[in-house]
Each structure stands twice: as structure tokens, then as C-alpha cells.
Amino acid sequence: xxxxxxxxxxxxxxxxxxxxxxxxxxxxxxxxxxxxxxxxxxxxxxxxxxxxxxxxxxxxxxxxxxxxxxxx
Length: 72
What we know:
Layout: H1 17-44, H2 47-69
């Protein structure tokens, strides 16, 4: 990220707001992918795929809830 010569990075926010939005978008995609994993694992009777899909969905939802509540 580039700054003006007379302006440095904001120390209160070490990462830009766009980085935060990218993480939120990634978690949203992860929920969709996790659901697809659960469905595919159920259809194919593959236990590890269901477990990974459920874990991915739960962790992504947890991140988004924590973000909404202001913990992140």
C-alpha cells in the first residue's frame, strides 16, 4: 500500500479496510464450499468430506458472527 510522503500508515488499523472485506468475502465463499462438501460427502458416503465441510461451515459462520458483533 502506498502512502503520501507526509502521511504514514494508521497505527490503529495496521491492515486496510479492503483486507477486512476480503476476509469477510472469503468466509462467505467458505460457507458455500462447506455446504457443497457436506452434500457431496453425504451423497458419496465419504465421512471425512462431511466432517471437513461441517467444520468449514461452522468456523466460517463463527467468524462472520464474531465480525458482526464487533469482536474482530
